[in-house]
Specification:
Elements (H helix, E strand, L loop, with lengths): L3 E10 L4 E9 L2 E7 L3 H4 L5 E4 L4 E4 L1 E6 L4 E2 L2 E2 L4 H10 L2 E9 L6 H12 L6 E7 L5 H13 L3 E5 L10 H14 L2 E5 L3 H13 L6 H6 L2 H18 L3 E3 L5 H12 L4 E5 L1 H5 L2 H4 L20 H11 L4 E2 L32 H10 L5 H15 L17 E11 L18 E11 L2 E4 L24
Parallel strand pairs: 1-4, 1-5, 6-9, 9-10, 10-11, 11-12, 12-13, 13-14, 14-15
Antiparallel strand pairs: 1-2, 2-3, 5-16, 7-8, 16-17, 17-18
């Protein structure tokens, strides 16, 4: 049965333009747009009319970096695909790209199938997968080709975490060479993990065990060094490169230098690096453990460089790296030894609002907000046209956003399955009001009306930034 929804009277904002337009949705897709008040728009009829007067009408957010149920440090991220995607919907995100994990000694297929099983029938919004390569060998290199054909078109490698996810330069080069031939995109966690482990050992030997030392041993220079090395390996392989969670000014400088040469090198940052700092890691009574993530939070001075990188397009994407662990029972595993604190922060629900606050604060424009949160992640990972925009033929993933609403971020009101907020007490202007996922209302005037299993797995094309 055909269903039609009409969103009337809002300011439609995409990465390309802002226009006062009505949006007609039919059978889960955007059917048409017409200027508000014109004969064409007035002639439309629909089963449901949503009044967006005084509101923004924006594409649903695309969070290209989440870790639901990720095993880490003897525990698991506290959000399941069910709770995490529901929280994402509350925050105006309608597509996540999560990471399937290849375990050491296992095939890529076994890891991918395990993640398909975790997510199947659980998600409130649409989802896709990247593949973490933690065991690069002849078999897994061959498997990369099959995964690209299946719509898993990006592969994450780690220069950090020796003994867990770490790949050496030779393995990285081989994977990059493979991606150069099969069209895949290599995503890099760029930190020199071998050197960091030495600094961790030395800090603990000196009795430096508090959470703040997590930031001190994971030095900005070791992020910059690894970023530089990853760029050179990608040049040798003739492969594009996407560097995840860029946190340091020195690492960003490496990306900017490569991009100035015209190289296909891309970078993302995350809200925690834009809004939080080492001041949070230094909070007393082990509270700093709530902010332990890798790459780590940096001194506040780095924030200006990251905002500038977002304005100049040296950074293209803001993702969350959502990987929540509860303070009680999970973060506490590292009392007396910061190296045992599970690495990760909650944030999938906060990203769109924090970036709107950045618009209010004058860091970015409204169109750039949509570009870095919706359009660019969709384009980077082969989803654009279907996701990331409001245009005829696109999936009807649409958010009605109230730019004047004020809210205070808090564990008391968020929907992520974690016992603290990384942004507790932060006042922001702007709030999600109504969210449609493929035309179905999943948040209706600040009430959840979605369901587990509505979200579909979305196979991806190759990156749309090349060619």
């Amino acid at each position: 049965m055909s269903t039609r929804t009409l969103i009337r009277g809002g300011l439609v904002i995409t990465a390309a333009e802002e226009t006062h337009a009505d949006v007609l949705i039919e059978d889960g897709r955007i059917a048409a747009l017409a200027a508000h008040g014109t004969d064409a728009a007035e002639a439309w009829t629909a089963d449901r009319v949503i009044d967006a007067t005084g509101k923004y009408v924006i594409p649903g957010g695309v969070d290209a970096h989440t870790h639901m149920e990720l095993p880490f440090g003897g525990t698991f991220a506290s959000d399941s695909f069910e709770t995490g995607t529901r929280a994402a919907a509350w925050g105006g995100t309608t597509t996540i790209i999560d990471f399937a994990v290849q375990s050491q000694g296992q095939s890529l297929r076994a890891g991918l199938d395990a993640w398909y099983a975790k997510a199947d029938g659980k998600c409130a919004i649409d989802y896709a997968f990247h593949m973490i390569l933690s065991d690069v060998n002849q078999r897994s290199l061959k498997e990369m080709d099959f995964l690209v054909e299946e719509g898993i078109t990006s592969f994450k490698l780690f220069m950090a975490y020796p003994g867990v996810f770490y790949s050496d330069d030779g393995q990285i080069l081989r994977a990059m060479q493979r991606s150069a031939s099969n069209g895949g995109l290599i995503m890099m966690h760029a930190e020199n993990g071998i050197a960091i482990d030495v600094l961790v050992e030395q800090a603990l030997a000196r009795g430096e065990t508090d959470p703040r030392y997590h930031g001190e041993v994971r030095k900005a220079l070791l992020e910059a060094e690894a970023t530089h090395r990853a760029i050179q390996l990608a040049r040798v392989a003739g492969a594009p490169l996407y560097v995840v969670h860029v946190s340091a000014e020195e690492a960003l400088a490496e990306l900017a230098a490569a991009r100035d040469k015209g190289l296909p090198v891309f970078g993302e940052t995350c809200p925690q690096y834009l809004f939080l700092s080492t001041d949070n890691l230094a909070e007393p009574d082990f509270e700093g453990s709530k902010y332990v993530c890798s790459t780590p939070l940096r001194p506040r001075e780095h924030q200006a460089a990251l905002w500038r990188g977002l304005r100049t397009n040296d950074l293209q994407v803001v993702s969350t790296d959502h990987c929540p662990f509860c303070f009680v029972g999970q973060k506490e595993l590292g009392r007396g030894d910061f190296s045992k604190i599970p690495n990760g922060l909650p944030g999938v629900e906060n990203r769109m609002d924090l970036l709107h606050q950045a618009v209010v604060d004058g860091h970015i424009t409204r169109r750039r907000w949509i570009e870095i949160a919706c359009a660019s992640p969709a384009r980077m990972f082969g989803l654009y046209g279907k996701k990331g925009t409001i245009a005829p033929g696109a999936d009807a993933d649409v958010v009605v956003y109230d730019p004047a609403a004020e809210q205070v971020m808090s564990v008391e009101t968020h929907h992520m399955n974690v016992d603290y907020s990384a942004y507790e007490g932060k006042r922001v202007t702007g709030q999600v009001e109504t969210v449609l996922s493929r035309g179905e209302v999943v948040i209706d005037e600040r009430k959840f009306t979605g369901r587990a299993g509505h979200g579909c797995y979305v196979p991806r094309g190759t990156t749309q930034y090349l060619g």
